[in-house]
Amino acid sequence: MNRVRWSVVMLALAAFVGLATFALADDAPKDEAKTVTGKSSCGGCDGVVKGCCVMLTDDGGLRWILRGDSESLKAAFKARHGGKSMTATLAGKAETKKDKDGKEYKEVKVSEVKVNS
User: Fold this and answer.
1) CB-side neighbour CA atoms (13 Å) of 112
2) How confident is the model at residue 10 (pLDDT cuts 50, 70, 90)?
């Protein structure tokens, strides 16, 4: 009977530790904005989407189509063909889509875009 009690206690302890770990991870600061940094280009000219827009290609090769109407995105739109490094602050959840060739890209609304020098 001691083995059964010991097993129940250990299972309860393991469940408690698991829930505590999950709760602590969930309490991480939410005010930190997520960003994506990559080389700029035009999503329309590159054939990813219809119409011209700012596209970033990150270090892993993932393409990000940036959407929004902020002044900083408008400035990035003018500089998109320069192949400059840009950092975008995400304002929404990224949506995974596929281009006409079936290659995945992310489309996301952004609140700010910084053109890095």
Assistant:
1) 6
2) confident
